[in-house]
Amino acid sequence: MRNERAVSLHRLSCDGLVKDHGGSFQLGPLSLEFADGVTCLVGPNGAGKSTFFRIAAGLEKPTSGSVRLPRGKSDERISPLGYLPQILDMPPGATCEEFLHYVAWVHRIPAGRREKAVADVLSRTGLAERVTSKIRTLSGGMARRLGIAQAMIHDPVMLLLDEPTVGLDPRQRLALRETIAAIAAERIVIVSTHLVEDIRGLADRVVVLDGGTVVFDGDVPALEAKSDPGAPGETDLERALATLMGAPE
């Protein structure tokens, strides 16, 4: 666990949120509130994590219930949220700077502020020395950091990061977790993950989904306390997740 945070300034609220996929799967009903800091959204494949992200990002509408986004910055033209999907298509022949200038334009950042916005976000994600690098030359870890940079370019108060460390080696995952922790001080960050090391290294709070419903909501020590000694896993955290998600022994 990392240090306790100051009182949150932002809130994402879900009230009775339901998404029904034609009887094959239902997410919810979910009534949750997210505050500043890092919340790890955890669950097996098909638990509803990506569905929740798409609804929170405005890409899908709920069947019923509501999602209330946090209030954004003073410029109401600019979205209060940034989104990194699992797969982000970026133009391989563009430089990091060119790509981010385009994303800044999409987010309606005024022309006079774009240069600084690009420089700031490259610095905050550890890519300041890659300004003129072509995207196709970036390592997997750098490409994911650029994905976070594009999600942050408009300085949103909420970030949705869907499996941001997937496919990275241990060193790259550590560097990316450090990046995420550094940018989460004054914003809501929700990270979808199935990696135990991400949970332990990032989470101020953990929400576990299974079958579209919340089966746990709390911090890492409280999650570890759910561990069943007979469940599979090498640590209390792994055994707790296996216990909550009904993994076979």
UniProtKB/TrEMBL annotation:
Pfam families: ABC_tran. It comes from the Bacteria. Gene3D superfamilies: P-loop containing nucleotide triphosphate hydrolases. This is ABC transporter domain-containing protein. One of its GO terms (molecular function) is ATP binding. Keywords: ATP-binding, Nucleotide-binding, Transport. PROSITE patterns: ABC_TRANSPORTER_1 (PS00211), ABC_TRANSPORTER_2 (PS50893). Transmembrane segments: none annotated. The keyword Nucleotide-binding applies. The lineage of its organism: Bacteria, Bacillati, Actinomycetota, Actinomycetes, Kitasatosporales. Residues 12-236 form the ABC transporter domain. Belongs to the ABC transporter superfamily. Coiled coil: none annotated.
